[in-house]
């Protein structure tokens, strides 16, 4: 069809075809021949307008329309049939053109990938990365590109599909992954026989307070010693990434994964960030407990600087090593699934928005309104939180040693040498942690531990004294998301403050704190350098137990208590038994105080 042909001209052509079709030919009875009729411009315009409102008129409407326009009902019927066929043809032609254009774009992307490989840049220094440093040959590079492109196509389909791939749970609150349907839909990924790995997949959506471009930049802002990056307008490829996915407990092994990350903006404006495992790239890959299937998110722009994020998390995992106390949590998806990714992302976006806020209310007592002071205090709290995470998870980087107890009541310790570490003086740092279950909902445990008024019930360092909040910064919608400065009313501790960050979402809650010198804290609040402020964080990680573990069947909490203590200022010194005994007693006393206080609270 010529592109300059108008719809009215097409309609006339079809009318002529209809008139010719109604004629019977030269050998028919002349009395049966119908008079040739061409629709007028007015008739076509009226039927066009009617078609927009009702493309499938019934007999009554066709008869009424034919009477108004001076046509036979059959003529009206055939005109609408022809019009519908015309629209269908145009729609199919448009879809075909879109698919052809998308295919051409993919081919062009592939060519650009190849051209860009020769000038891949190091994400750390921005310099050109030599081919030898990337440790991939040309064939492997092409395979990585193909893996990334196929993973993105699969992720988009998984994010957008409904039943039967994603079934609604019996309670109607969650979606359940149908692995059999997945294998039918994506037959190339059928599991191998006798595969010991378990498939886990989940999907979650949320609207977060961050611009879609900034969100993409954060997700792609990764720096790994073994990683390389290829950049092009509209997409980015990060490969040879190695990550540990952690649960804040020494009783749950981390999940190591080796994968490629690929980001691209699509024609409708949606950004897609996808990860996929590279374990199968070579014949004999190193054994890993977690193989990352196409996972990641679709990011759509929303009004007022918000973004809609749809996250799909899909892995094959070996669950060996997970303590029985945490298996329900892991199986629920709250430990590693899409729900935790989205909840954490939402909370972090709120935290970042708080650090950038300029319209701070001045009426509330204790609110820090100084912009530079807020930023410095939040950065210091962030460093404290990251240090706490490093000292509480079962990372493969550090080895935990069991001290005492049996089963879940074990106290686990590890030591690390602090040398040239910003924010920590040199010496031996002892980290200790213990996990236990409480028959109390996580929200109640979180509120008890973060409240300065109940702190003297469990914190033996305050020795039963009164604790006061001097200042705070709210970090989001939930009042529990907050950075605070606390002090003891005891005059003997007047030179020491407590920096505390509390944060909570649907999947986890934390109360993390560290003692800081009051002089150093004043420097921080003036927006000065933070690196010299020494921090040894302690605190709590509060997780839902994944289901009813108590006698009543109600949801309880999995609580991890962790301390970090500088036990010797000499990095070459050996750990003394006295230091180990001290931290062991500190944890035991803290646990017993918490149990006693919450037991009385629920009695």
Automatic annotation (TrEMBL):
Family stated for the protein in its record: Belongs to the HD-ZIP homeobox family. Class IV subfamily.
Q: Which InterPro entries match?
A: HD, HD-Zip_IV, HD-Zip_IV_C, Homeodomain-like_sf, START-like_dom_sf, START_lipid-bd_dom
Q: Per the record, which residues fall in region Disordered? A: 1-40
Q: Which domain of life is it from?
A: Eukaryota
- Subcellular location, principal: nucleus
Name of this protein: Homeobox-leucine zipper protein HDG2 isoform X2
DNA-binding region extent? 32-91
Q: List the top taxonomic levels of the source.
A: Eukaryota, Viridiplantae, Streptophyta, Embryophyta, Tracheophyta
Q: Name one GO cellular component term.
A: nucleus
Q: Which organism is it from?
A: Prunus yedoensis var. nudiflora
Q: Which UniProt keywords apply?
A: Coiled coil, DNA-binding, Homeobox, Nucleus, Transcription, Transcription regulation
